[in-house]
Amino acid sequence: MTRQLVVDPQCPAPAVLAEALAVLRRGGVVAYPTDTVYGLAVDAMQPDAIARLYAVKGRPETKALPVIIGALTQLTAVVAMVPACAERLMTAFWPGPLTLLLLPHPHVPAALLGDSDRIGVRWPASTISQQLAIGLGGAITASSANRSGAPAALTAADVMAQLAPAVDLVLDAGAMTSPVVSTILDVTVEPPCVYRPGKIAQHALEAVLGYYVAQKKVDTSS
Question: Tell me, what CATH number does 183's domain have?
Fold first, then answer.
């Protein structure tokens, strides 16, 4: 049975945070508010938890799962290197709704990557997202809290309608203000390539970088 707890996303109660972390540590699935839409968190270093997340969403295991870090100090545990262009974008847009595709650290579970040789990483502005990763001591997944191919969840009720009772805990922060997801940008190629349009517009990326950013059409269902 799915448990629901009300949470202030910018000032989560210690007891709520502790319960969510306990679920994550034992390999469970937590639905939580990000700074875009509701997301699904598992411990990104636990292959069994990752497999469960794929099953909960009905997501093909060939499709990679993005991750969230709680602080820049956690970045080196999930990526192998950070290009100079990525550093400029992080300075401009992190914490915020920009997911960067980077080369993964060798210790990242293969299950997280699917058929990809890159990992999507974001440092969100949402305090609850940050504190989940910081409290866990490592990255959490950031896949949207919906069945694969279905509309993104903007409320806890949306999450429950699509995913209960498969998720263990839903953190209810009320309604998200917009269905627009994070922008996904591949910074392992030149020029960097937008894999999914989102809250950070292409022209804003180009203004920071000072040069053209490409755009690729792919299957972006999450």
Answer: 3.90.870.10
